[in-house]
Structures are given as C-alpha cells and as structure tokens.
Amino acid sequence: MLGTMTYVGLDVHARSTHAAAIDVASGELRRARFGGGSGEVVEWLQTLPLPLKGCYEAGPTGYGLYRAAAAVGLALDVVAPSKTPRAPGDRVKNDRKDAELLARLLLAGQLKPVAVPPPPFEAARHLARAREQVRADLMRCRHRVSKLLLLHGRVYEGGAWTKTHRRWLAQQRFDEPAAELAYLDCLAAVDGLAARKQALDERLSRLAFEGDWSQTVARLRCFRGIDTLTAFVLCLEIGRFDRFPRPAKLTGWLGLVPSLDQSGESRRQGAITKTGSGYARRLLVEAAWHYLPRPSEGPAIAARRAGQPDHLLQIAWRAQHRLYHLHTRLRARGKPGNVSTVAVARELACFLWAAAVAE
Fold first, then answer.
1. Tens of pLDDT along 7-44?
2. In DSSP terms, which residues pair with 52 in a beta bridge?
C-alpha cells in the first residue's frame, strides 16, 4: 500500500490554503494554492491518485476541512502542531514550505493526530467554554468593584459576594458624580455577568444528562469534589476516556506529569508539563482540594451516587482514602500545598479514568 499512496500536507489559514502532495509511486511533488474555505481543497484532493492520506495542523480554522473531506471518503488527519518536528537550524518559514514539511513528515510517520470531537461534543464544548469566559469576566468585574471601594477606604468585614454583601454594595455612595457613575457601571456589569453565568449553568446542567456523555457524567459525579458541571466539562474536554489505553496516558495528556530533562547520568524533574486542556487541568486541581478532609459520605455525595453500580462506588471510595492519605503524607514530608494538590489531581484523574471505562 505504501508504494501507491499519495501523501498530502495542507497549511490552512482563514483566507488561504497551501497544499503539497507526494506521489510515492512516481516521486512527483505537486503544489497548489487555494483561497478560503474547504470546497476547492476537497475538489483538488479528489483529483489526486488514490489511496490518499492527508493532514493539516490543528488551529483556529477548526475541523471544517476534516469533516468536508470525510464526507467524500477522503482520509484527512488533524495533527498536533506542538509535536511537529522542526529543524532548529531552519530559519526560513513560509506556508509553501510548511505544507511540504507536513507531507514529508506524514510520509515518515512522525506526526501525532489529535482526536476530532463529534459535532454535538464540539457544540457543547463551545457552550461550556462560553460559561468559563463569563466566569472569568465576572471575577475581574468583582475585583474592579472591590478595588474601587478600597481606593476610597471602604472595606467590607465579612463574606464577600453574599446577599448581605450585595445589599451593602448597593448602599455605597460617592461625593463626586463621576466616581458614582463609575461605581454603578462596575456594579451593573457584575449583576449582568452573574445573571448570564446562572443562565449558562442551568442550561449546561440540563444538557449534561441529555447526550451520549450522560452515563459518564453520572459516573464521575460519584467522586468527591466533582458535581454535574465539573463532570460535564471533563467529559467534553477529554472526550472519550477509552481513547487512552491506560491512565498514565490521560495524565500525560492533561499535563499533570513532571517535565523531565535526562542526559547520560543526569536526570532532573521539573514543573508539570501543562499540556492538553488547561480548563480540565484547573478543574481537577480544584477538585483535589476536597480530599484534604477525612473520607466521609455526606448527603450530597450520597444523592449523586444513588443508583450507581457497586463497583463504581468502590472505586470512588478507594479514591477518597488513597487521595486523603496522599495529601497527608506529602504535607508531612514538607511538600508545598500546591505541589501536593497537583499530585492528588494527577491520581484523581487516574481514578476518573477507571470509573469512566469500567464495564
């Protein structure tokens, strides 16, 4: 099959696409340039000798070209740009050379394809990330309100952003009309973003139990520190848990493993790699803080676990014990809190993988 294969590299941008095709049988290298969109590219790919295998790097153009090629039966991969080998001495970079480089690396088998989510997964992921953006905007607006008050020497003594705190904020007045207007604008932004976040939370909570991911969401909710939204976002960001053959692959994809610099007898471990989804990694680290207290099963967790199989509940219960003892052991050794929490998050991801792929 290798002797008759055509390998295609595509450098895809919003307004242009450069293509390079290598016919293994003849050794011919063909080049082409197209405008924006995927229609012309797919038509050109259909004129090449079959069988054909192509690729382009993941980026802001998304998966439209991949799906258009799949619709006509063409094999097109989306590859990870962070793992594309590049010569350190190559100082000339342009779209034409990038397309040829991708074609040659694909022929050599040196590219790493990424998992392309189904359209429902991608649509739900957009909604979840929109909610995350609103959450970040809300946090920034709240900081602006508190810092504006601090500039005028006003500090609230008590829990921030409770109903009592909100009534106190509404009572604040300023002598200068401009300062009053700036304060009211910040406060209105906080109220608007809080309402948007609540609406998105409600929609995501309903959507979590409506799609193909509902069974996995129900399983992940059995764990302490993981409720509906966290479980749903983890499913969307990770995709199918069974695409990872073992849990170590998942933790590596999440960027929760230490970086390594090894040469000869020298071996040095550094900070975690922070690859993969930063959103999923942050949620796992936040969930890991819930394993500081001793193992227990409160009414909220018991309600989430109702109706789940016994072997899944045993996995979640073992996770509570192991992660609690890991937290305790690392802190007793003098490890910083953030280091021990990341270690717990790494093992929590392994337990979640076990629960998600269990029969």
1. 999 999 999 999 999 999 888 999 999 998 999 999 99
2. 6
* Domain at 2-108: CATH architecture: 2-Layer Sandwich (3.30)
pTM, entire model:
0.91
Q: In 146-171, which positions are buried (b, 16+ CB within 10 angstroms) versus exposed (e)?
A: bebbeeeeeeeeeeeeeeeeeeebee
Taking residues 138-166, report their average pLDDT: 95
Q: Where are the domains of the chain?
A: 2-108, 119-207, 214-357
Share of the chain above pLDDT 90, in %: 89
Contact status, residue 69 vs residue 104, Cβ threshold 8 Å: no
d(CA 288, CA 348): 7
Among 262, 250, 257, which Cα is nearest to 272's?
257
Residue 168 CA, chain-centre distance (Å), reads 38
Is the sign of the CA dihedral 160, 161, 167, 168 positive or negative? positive
